[in-house]
Write a structure and sequence with these properties.
By secondary structure, this protein is α/β, with parallel strands linked by helices. It has one domain (about 35-120): TIM Barrel (Alpha-Beta Barrel), CATH 3.20.20.70. Helix content is about 40%, strand content about 10%. The chain has five helices and four strands. The protein has helices spanning about 15-30, 45-50, 75-85, 95-100, 105-115; strands spanning about 35-40, 55-60, 85-90, 120. Strands 1-2-3-4 form a four-stranded parallel sheet.
């Protein structure tokens, strides 16, 4: 399915000059958009190659708040950063609801991610 963004101007603007100005401002905004793909962990290394020559950024869906240790199944901020991940989603409602993530745990994850230089998307 193809996603489409439609700018419905209704009966605005009232002149061609204003229409051109609006159109140009939209073009500037679109050029400045950052698109992030937050794929499941098992696909991240493949996506590094796929997005290499595009403007698309790589994101991850979660992170642990420790950089190393005996935390089976977890992934550290440094591991993600070294892979090429730039963005990290933290505090998603599903993780709060189904995995009982608390504000305290989410705060630790945010701090660890920021310390590593990841851009946090806090839900």
């Amino acid at each position: 399915m193809k996603k489409i963004i439609i700018f419905n101007w209704k009966m605005y603007p009232s002149s061609l000059k204003e229409a051109k100005e609006l159109f140009n401002s939209i073009l500037k905004q679109i050029k400045n958009l950052e698109i992030v793909v937050a794929a499941p962990f098992i696909y991240l290394s493949e996506f590094v190659g796929l997005i290499n020559k595009t403007k698309i950024k790589l994101g991850a869906q979660d992170v642990f708040y420790k950089d190393e240790g005996a935390y089976t199944g977890e992934i550290s901020p440094t591991m993600l950063k070294n892979l090429g991940v730039e963005y990290i989603i933290i505090g998603h409602s599903e993780r709060r609801k189904y995995l009982d993530e608390t504000d305290e745990m989410i705060n630790k994850k945010v701090s660890a991610a920021l310390k590593t230089g990841l851009k946090v998307v806090l839900c």
